[in-house]
Specification:
Length: 157
């Protein structure tokens, strides 16, 4: 029997991501997530009021935060199509270098440590492998170490 009081049931939360441009959507907007914004600004997802994906920038409005962020600051994620050559071109143009922001290393470290299975960890590892050319060598070694440690923990415990 379905309860008449629907408000007490657990509901899927409404997305806080709004696409402002209806005609042209930035292809890197697929990498924008509430979790990434929360990590980027070191806040909880509940503190985010809205994320507006405009044509060239992302506007983040959260508790104590009102900022524009470049799409190039958002690292690729496993849940969507992998990065394309156009993504790399866009990143290079924005960064004025061939190195990803330091946040990307923090982001992938977080995702390695929070992978729920060896298969999930492998997916994240493969993704990092596809973008390793934009990650500094020292950061890449750090990610390899975290990956190996997490894999070892999952397989042996």
């Amino acid at each position: 029997m379905i309860s008449e009081n629907q408000s007490s049931s657990s509901a899927i939360g409404e997305s806080k991501i709004i696409h402002k441009s209806t005609s042209v959507v930035n292809p890197r907007s697929r990498f924008v997530t509430e979790e990434t914004v929360a990590l980027l600004f070191n806040i909880s997802p509940e503190q985010i009021y809205r994320i507006e994906c405009c044509h060239y920038m992302v506007y983040v409005h959260a508790q104590g935060i009102s900022r524009f962020v470049s799409y190039a600051d958002f690292p690729p994620i496993v849940e969507v199509n992998p990065p394309t050559s156009e993504d790399f071109t866009g990143w290079y143009k924005r960064w004025n270098t061939k190195q990803a922001p330091q946040f990307w290393t923090q982001f992938y470290t977080y995702n390695f440590k929070n992978a729920f299975s060896v298969d999930s960890l492998l997916e994240w590892g493969k993704l990092v492998g596809t973008i390793k050319s934009v990650i500094a060598l020292s950061a890449l070694q750090q990610l390899r170490d975290v990956y190996a440690q997490e894999k070892d923990l999952m397989e042996n415990f």
